[in-house]
Structure to design on (91 residues):
């Protein structure tokens, strides 16, 4: 159901990210607890800030329960950002 889907946009900055070339292969790593399903995610350089932006979309499986999310950026199998965490409360 579409109304149980939420899109997030998270901007990351820092020395490790600034050191990467714009064409670097940076991966968005997004995980959810059992009440959420990650539908899509992408990471790309944000030209406005010089940092990197992650966008992802999740689906809440049970409408009356929260979803706990974790996300970070990865390059060459190494984390290059802090871990972003969020609890999405039911509406």
């Amino acid at each position: 159901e579409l109304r149980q889907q939420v899109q997030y946009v998270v901007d990351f900055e820092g020395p490790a990210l600034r050191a990467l070339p714009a064409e670097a292969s940076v991966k968005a790593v997004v995980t959810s607890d059992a009440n959420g399903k990650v539908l899509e995610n992408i990471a790309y350089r944000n030209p406005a800030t010089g940092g990197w932006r992650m966008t992802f979309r999740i689906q809440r499986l049970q409408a009356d329960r929260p979803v706990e999310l974790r996300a970070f950026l990865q390059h060459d199998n190494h984390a290059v950002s802090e871990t972003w965490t969020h609890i999405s409360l039911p509406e």
